[in-house]
Specification:
Blueprint lengths: L2 H20 L1 H13 L24 E3 L5 E3 L7 E7 L4 H17 L5 E7 L4 H10 L6 E4 L14 E5 L5 E6 L7 H11 L2
Parallel strand pairs: 3-4, 4-5
Antiparallel strand pairs: 1-2, 1-5, 3-6, 6-7
Helix pairs in contact: 1-2, 2-3
Length: about 190
């Protein structure tokens, strides 16, 4: 291969990589591909105990499109999967199908609750996104202040709250929640 051909191929590959990284939809597909090969495993370890963890549920609530309000205090006794996301966030978009798979696997379990929280309160955009991706997930919006222990500013952020109202695990960033170990982890929490 002559040097000119190598240069053209190299430049073409460089342009494709840049487009994949900059174009949000392409980025999401690229990230989903990386998830499928096992690069983005969620953290399933209990975080450090926080002094404020015991009372962290007080006054935290979320609202859905129907205006129904869910208070975290009312969910004690259940395992709660909470994902904080936004429609403009490529890693959030990339992991959403894996959350849908987990939801479908566990939606019949009355001891597990899913709260897919669109942090900006953009119900029209969130509903359009879910419809466009053909996802049937329970979308909520913040109805109160979210503690910094739950959402420190990075999205996506996912929490799994145990039946006692404590953070069983917290993962910031893209992750593949369709993995069997995630559903096994949640099922195990329902038994404790």
């Amino acid at each position: 291969m002559n040097p000119k051909t190598k240069k053209i191929i190299g430049n073409s590959v460089f342009v494709v990589i840049i487009l994949l990284l900059l174009w949000p939809t392409s980025r999401a597909y690229f990230q989903q591909g990386l998830m499928k090969i096992g690069l983005f495993k969620p953290t399933l370890e209990e975080p450090e105990k926080l002094d404020s963890q015991i009372s962290v549920h007080n006054n935290i609530s979320f609202k859905n499109d129907k205006g129904e309000i869910v208070h975290m205090n009312d969910l004690k006794g259940k395992v709660v999967f909470i994902n904080f996301w936004a429609t403009w966030c490529p890693p959030c978009i990339a992991e959403m199908p894996s959350i849908a798979t987990l939801y479908e696997r566990l939606k019949g379990n009355s001891e597990v609750v899913f709260l897919i929280v669109e942090i900006e309160g953009e119900s029209e955009k969130a509903n359009k996104f879910m419809a466009g991706k053909q996802l049937n997930l329970p979308v909520y919006y913040p109805n109160s202040q979210i503690p910094k222990e739950w959402l420190g500013g990075s999205i996506p952020t996912t929490l799994i709250i145990n039946k006692h109202g404590e953070i069983a695990t917290k993962h910031e960033g893209l992750a593949d929640y369709s993995r069997q170990e995630v559903s096994d982890f949640i099922i195990e929490l329902t038994k404790k």
